[in-house]
């Protein structure tokens, strides 16, 4: 059974930093591409960042230069380091992977105050 468990969200002032974690189980993590998405009420879920099994990273333009995705295959964990946070970054952040079907975590709330 695939499980993705996010942690690390919270309340931070604009300009601050947070680091999200997503612990994965039930998949061959080292072979899996991992994504972070985010969603605010009334809006579609938005893709944020991706890291391939080989460590290649891609970012949405809205977070490029501020967020960094990384992975630790020994810990089956993917991270999202978020710096220079803005109020517009406020959202529930979700971890995602795909193996025959989409798998999502339960999400972690990030709130950035102005």
What descriptors fit this protein?
mainly beta; seven-stranded mixed beta sheet; 0% helix
Task: Explain this structure.
The protein has no helices and 11 strands. It has strands at 3-7, 10-13, 18-25, 34-39, 46-51, 57-59, 67-72, 77-82, 91-99, 101-104, 108-113. Strands 2, 4, 5, 6, 9, 10 and 11 form a 7-stranded mixed beta sheet that branches. It has a 4-stranded antiparallel beta sheet with strand order 1-3-8-7, with no helix packed on it. The relative contact order is 0.32. The model has no long low-confidence stretch (mean pLDDT 97).
What's the gyration radius in Å?
A: 13 Å
- Give the integer mean of the pLDDT values: 97
Task: Kindly estimate the percentage of residues that lie in beta strands according to DSSP.
Answer: over 45%
What is the percent of helical residues? under 10%
Shape: globular
Continuous helix count: 0
Layout of helices and strands:
Blueprint: E1 3-7, E2 10-13, E3 18-25, E4 34-39, E5 46-51, E6 57-59, E7 67-72, E8 77-82, E9 91-99, E10 101-104, E11 108-113
Parallel strand pairs: 2-11
Antiparallel strand pairs: 1-3, 3-8, 4-5, 4-9, 5-6, 7-8, 9-10, 9-11
Describe this structure in a few short sentences.
This protein has 114 residues and is mainly β. It has no helices and eleven strands.
